[in-house]
Amino acid sequence: MTQDLIVTREGPVGRLRLNRPKAIHALTRDMCEGVLAALEDWRGDLSVEAVIIDHAEGRGFCAGGDIRLLAESGAGDGEAARGFFHAEYRMNHRLFTYAKP
Q1: Which of 18, 57, 85, 95 could join 25 in a cystine, given CB atoms 3.0 to 4.6 angstroms apart?
Q2: What CATH number is attached to the domain comprising 76?
Q3: How many domains would you assign to the chain?
Q4: 94-100, long-range: CB within 8 Å, 24+ apart, which pairs?
Q5: What is the pLDDT of residues 38-71, one digit of tens each?
């Protein structure tokens, strides 16, 4: 798990906090995979009734994907960028289809 994503439970609420304030909480592959893992853990857990996604500190909720990583990857073989987008699109789909509010 990455320190860039804080996963907690607060009573019946699962909480996902983006934690990259210097990068305006831009997403990394590890963050997307962490969100996916937490959502999977909570899916069948009847004690988790809802999920909140926010950011830990600083300004801005989420700047999107980590542009620096994408640019550096694109200047090379693109492997890291493809891995990021694969994880991000899976996360977006899971969030869109998730059964809990």
Answers
A1: 18
A2: 3.90.226.10
A3: 1
A4: 94/35, 94/36, 94/39, 95/35, 95/39, 98/39, 98/43, 98/51, 99/43, 100/42, 100/43, 100/48, 100/49, 100/50, 100/51
A5: 999 999 999 999 999 999 988 889 988 888 999 9
Length, in residues, of the chain: 101
Which phi-psi region, left, alpha or beta, contains residue 74 (left: φ > 0; alpha: ψ -120 to 50)? Answer: alpha
Q: Distance between CA 99 and CA 69 in Å, rounded?
A: 32
Mean per-residue pLDDT for 31-40? 98
CA 32 to chain CA centroid, Å, is: 4
58 dihedral zone (left: phi>0; alpha: psi -120 to 50; beta): left
User: Can you give the residue range of the structural domain that contains 28?
Assistant: 5-97
Both tokens assigned to 29: 């592959």
Confirm if 55 and 92 have CB atoms less than 8 A apart.
no
